[in-house]
């Protein structure tokens, strides 16, 4: 069994509706931000399938990992299309995560 922290590649941030709510009718203020991408090193997720990971709750500065409700993740490369639309997405996301730690 691999105990390494999974890494998420080609990731971006999306808004997910609460469980059971139709995304087409979900008010924007109820959307829960998640990051999605290709997860490598996870015991049950395939790196060939784009996956939404559990909601994030902060940033572990020492380990350089995103703290999520179920496990931590290391950030790989940002999705190039997302980066083009949101320059410096990685740095901006990490800064947002740091504010959640407070």
Write the layout of secondary structure elements.
Elements: E1 7-16, E2 32-40, E3 50-52, E4 56-60, E5 65-68, E6 72-75, H1 80-85, H2 89-100
3D structure, described in words:
The structure is a single chain. The protein is α+β, with helices and mostly antiparallel strands. The protein has one domain (7-100). Helices cover 18% and strands 34% of the residues. It has 2 helices and 6 strands. It has a 6-stranded mixed beta sheet. The chain is globular, with a radius of gyration of 14 Å.
Question: Main attributes?
Answer:
alpha+beta; globular; single chain; six-stranded mixed β-sheet; 102 residues
Low-pLDDT stretches: none
What is the radius of gyration computed over CA atoms, rounded to a whole number of angstroms?
14 Å
Terminal Cα span: 34 Å
The succession of helices and strands, N to C, reads EEEEEEHH
- Count of domains: 1
- With strands numbered from the N-terminus, the spatial order across the biggest sheet is 3-2-1-6-5-4
Helix coverage percent of residues?
Answer: 10-25%
Number of helices: 2
Give the tally of β-strands: 6
The gist of it:
This protein is α+β, with helices and mostly antiparallel strands. The chain has one domain. 18% of the residues lie in helices and 34% in strands.
